Amino acid sequence: MFYRPEDGHGLPHNPFNAIVAPRPIGWIATRGTDGSENLAPYSFFNAVAYTPPQVMFATTGKKHDRDGTKDTLANIRDTGVFAVNIVEYAMREAMNLTSGPWDKDVDEMEMAGLRRAECESIDCGRVADAPATLECRLTQIVELEGKSNLVAFGEVTGIHMRDDCLKDGRFDVTTFLPLARMGYRDFTHVTETFEMTRPGE
How far apart are CA 88 and CA 101, in angstroms? Predict the structure, then answer.
């Protein structure tokens, strides 16, 4: 099968997200200038550089009261900081709950029964029990083709790792089974890893 996205795929559901999968989930915490707290998951998320460490996430929708975007990006635009929490399998239901179209004044972390801790290098809350959290300072926001398609890039200024996730000096993902997004309504989680050596190493 071949199709041009501009012509449509003719299938019951869009296959694009299922093809580009699995995708890590950035569970992004922000704080508004008014002190409001926000937590929402984004699966258009990844690390993009080592030195300095940098990450990105994209938001692809908007709310009527947020000037062409969603609460997360609106807060980042105003404050310049955000915290990316890594989602473990055990937190899947809480993560899903925070994905709803909640009002700006709803504290999703509190609603989902999650403990909040303060970040160290930025003025922002984080999910206290997450396997890891990346504290980030915004470097740029890029507008993509299409309506309300925006990408935020951030430099990682602080990293939290849960002690039980460190094994023999490595951050071991099999200790917490990171959640990943597939297509449609599907998710998966990492249960095992394998190693390969690059040529020349």
Answer: 22
Q: How would DSSP label each residue in the chain?
A: ----TTT---SSS--HHHHS--EE-EEEEEE-TTS-EEEEEESSEEEEETTTTEEEEEE----TTTTSS-HHHHHHHHHSEEEEEEPBGGGHHHHHHTTS---TT--HHHHTTPPEEE-SSSS-EEETTSSEEEEEEEEEEEEPSSTT-EEEEEEEEEEEE-GGGEETTEE-GGGT-BEEE-STT-EEE-------PPTT-
Strand pairing class (26-31; 81-86): antiparallel
Predicted model pTM: 0.95
Q: Is the pLDDT of residue 138 over 70?
A: yes
How far is residue 21 CA from its own chain's centroid?
15
Closest CA to 125 of 1, 35, 41: 35
Best CA proximity match to 151, nearest among 159, 161, 143: 143
Nearest of 28, 41, 20, 14 to residue 119 by alpha carbon:
28
Between CA 22 and CA 187 the distance in angstroms is: 8
Whether cis (ω within 30° of 0) applies to the bond prior to 52 is yes
**Mean pLDDT across 181-189:** 97
What are residue 143's phi and psi, to 5 degrees? -90, 125
Q: In this structure, which topology does domain 17-189 adopt according to CATH?
A: Pnp Oxidase; Chain A (2.30.110)
